[in-house]
Amino acid sequence: MLEHHLTSLNSCHVVCEYTGGLKRLIHDMKFRHEKSYAIYLRWLIQHHMDIKKIPPIDYVIPVPLHTKRLQERGYNQAEAIFKDWALVGKMRWRVDILARTRYTIPQWELNIMERKQNITGAFVVERPEMVNNKHIILVDDIITTGITLDECAKVLKKAGAASVHGLAIASGAR
Question: Which residue has the higher pLDDT, 55 or 67?
């Protein structure tokens, strides 16, 4: 994480490397409308994520999609993957706190500098009163540079969050 100069995340946990069959599952889920593949990704989390590594938290929040992208895809893949996992673990799932207010180019199409510019200012905290002094885990399907998670963490901390941690099913770190 340090190599990308991320400053807002307190920590970030990744379940698997973004290669092989896992890469295909995530790709098909995002771009071929295979929402049902989430069950396999949840299995990976349940069997390969040590819950003790996660600090005590108040909320689990998925990285939000812009409403246009949500309409295109029909679902938020982070929610499809992580919601049941959070609920089974008796963690409070919240989708009403963080919002993406600006449509952005998919990050995978951009280099690191373009990614930072693309995502800066794209998120807002809609319910800041719920964030104050809270410990939050942001969840997403894949982390490559960490820029998206870090930008979300930045706005959550600016709204008063005590800590923000990231959790992704896979890492395609560059």
Answer: 67
Residue 10's domain comprises: 2-171
pLDDT band at 1 (very low <50, low <70, confident <90, very high): very low
For 156-161, which contacts have Cβ atoms below 8 Å and span 24 or more sequence positions?
156/61, 156/97, 156/98, 156/125, 156/131, 157/8, 158/125, 159/125, 159/128, 159/131, 159/132, 160/128, 160/131, 160/132, 160/133, 160/134, 161/131, 161/132, 161/133, 161/134, 161/135, 161/136
Residue 105 is part of a domain; what is its CATH number?
3.40.50
Write the CB contacts of 26 (distance below 8 Å, at least 6 apart in sequence).
18, 37, 41, 77, 141, 142, 169, 170
Question: How much is the average pLDDT of 130-157?
Answer: 95
Q: Which residues pair with 60 in a beta bridge?
A: 93, 137
Structural domains of the chain, count:
1
Q: And the tokens for 75?
A: 């679902």
Is the model's pLDDT at 85 over the cut of 50? Answer: yes
**Mean confidence (pLDDT) of the chain:** 90
